[in-house]
């Protein structure tokens, strides 16, 4: 497709000058000519002119005066003036008033003239593109706003307490109900529980259920940052406050202004830092490092810890006044071993998410895999569960996900490392013979799963013949479904 040649209007009362300009431009432009301002107005009203090239000296009015009129009536046209040296001062004085793109001095050179007009044509194109983009943005703005609103609503729904996966009889139901009630009241909340139980997820759900949902939700892991750095992260600093402070930094408390700030592992902070944090909570203001005065902040504090803070207070490692400031409401998050009924739901959801992320078809976890998972105690809680599902999908390498790809500790449904193996035997019901048989059945089953139900390999590992293994499978009802 051949690009359209831009139209230029050349205005000069000298015939020879008009002819010379036309000969120079007619290969690259559609050239219209006028010998006076009156003729030029007629052309501008009739044709789509992109560039106006005007001589400064014309009968009745100057070039600057005419280009000022063009600016008012045909503002899209790019304006260029051409003149002799004696007119330079008058033109310079009128450049801003007339909005002149460029001016050329006589005698002009063909190469310079063409270069200037090509630049003017490109300027016109860019201006037109910008105008179209502005119109498009105005039309699209309501749609974009609605999309953003829909996306925010979807995020809120995905993190809301009702979206947290749990079974009908899960102890997490009571936790979520409590959070829904607490969200309505703007008080500090302390989430306690083991690492990996999902305290940050619950803190975000609390924020989204509150009146602050439209404002920022900011997080900081207090246990992962040294005190001095933690202070600058939370409170901010002024330029020059210390070596390396090359510019002002807004602290996380100020970033969370109007919203919520989640302070994870609050129990790991030092007593010295706890004093500074207490002042923030008491006074509602922070003082950036190096700042002459404090600044007000309004952020709801949600803290979390895997420590027993009451015991820490009794032993003098955590300030009592700070404890009562952050623990107006305390919510205890149960470990995964106390919500066994949630494990199948969580594991399947993690698997579906991983399959979707790699573009693979979803697979349903089989009963064997779920049985191993529900028998395990999960010291790493939900975080460990997700990593275990990720391991299975990775080792499956596109094939079926199997229990054999679980970690050995999960396959054996192991107890905590510090518990002896005989603790399992002691915890079984029945007499000694039935307990030993139950333990034997578990060992046989674990060996079969690890060898993907290859009876020859399992028998060899257990020191049994194939007939002996077959008898035990029949005795304990362990034939693969």
Automatic annotation (TrEMBL):
Sites bearing 4-aspartylphosphate, chain numbering: 55
InterPro entries hit by this protein: AAA+_ATPase, AAA_lid_NorR, CheY-like_superfamily, Homeodomain-like_sf, HTH_Fis, P-loop_NTPase, Sig_transdc_resp-reg_receiver, Sigma_54_int
Presence of the UniProt keyword Coiled coil in the record: no
GO-annotated biological processes: phosphorelay signal transduction system; regulation of DNA-templated transcription
Record flagged with keyword Methyltransferase: no
A Gene Ontology molecular function term of the record: sequence-specific DNA binding
All copies of domain Sigma-54 factor interaction, residue ranges: 165-394
Domain of life of the source: Bacteria
UniProt keyword annotations, A-Z: ATP-binding, DNA-binding, Nucleotide-binding, Phosphoprotein, Transcription, Transcription regulation
Domain annotation Response regulatory: ranges: 7-121
PANTHER family referenced in this protein's UniProt entry, alphabetically: PTS-DEPENDENT DIHYDROXYACETONE KINASE OPERON REGULATORY PROTEIN-RELATED (PTHR32071:SF117), TRANSCRIPTIONAL REGULATORY PROTEIN (PTHR32071)
Name of the featured protein: Sigma-54-dependent Fis family transcriptional regulator
Species the sequence originates in: Nitrogeniibacter mangrovi
